[in-house]
């Protein structure tokens, strides 16, 4: 369960001004702004909530990076140590504490995680997601698929900069993420997203 929640985690990118009044306008505004973002990196703090709970069951912190199209990493550094790395072909999950690595296809045949969606083909947003905006700098994506990877994703911005993201998963659990030290000039390259399992760890392949 932890792997699925972590993979869902990660990130929205846009720089939109004003209140969007229709789904079509919201989608077009989001797509327009995402097309201008080539890469992003920063720090995150995420809180996981059980359904209808006010207090988090866990709090984790770390670093993230995104390179469009199709590359991202989500590096949890506290309280445990885990790394998720994705390229257009595979998603790797490395649990450093348990010394295990899991590899899954990036395209598993179901709706992709929010980080993969927003870091990939922005044109697919219009077809695969309903995009709504009820307030300035707040955007909610709802999957149209009958087998979605999550119920909804809400992006929160402040003065045009990414501030937070909230994900409701298929079990009704809520993941609230805040971002800091975010930059769009991170100097990232494809090499930053290469992953080779360390020697001595247990490696599991799913879906090949």
Automatic annotation (TrEMBL):
One Pfam family per UniProt: LolA
GO CC terms in record: outer membrane-bounded periplasmic space
Gene3D superfamilies: Lipoprotein localisation LolA/LolB/LppX (2.50.20.10)
UniProt record, GO biological process: lipoprotein localization to outer membrane; lipoprotein transport
Record key words, sorted: Chaperone, Lipoprotein, Periplasm, Protein transport, Signal, Transport
Subcellular location: Periplasm
Similarity-based family: Belongs to the LolA family.
Function comment: Participates in the translocation of lipoproteins from the inner membrane to the outer membrane. Only forms a complex with a lipoprotein if the residue after the N-terminal Cys is not an aspartate (The Asp acts as a targeting signal to indicate that the lipoprotein should stay in the inner membrane).
Subunit structure: Monomer.
Protein's name in the database: Outer-membrane lipoprotein carrier protein
Organism: Halioglobus maricola
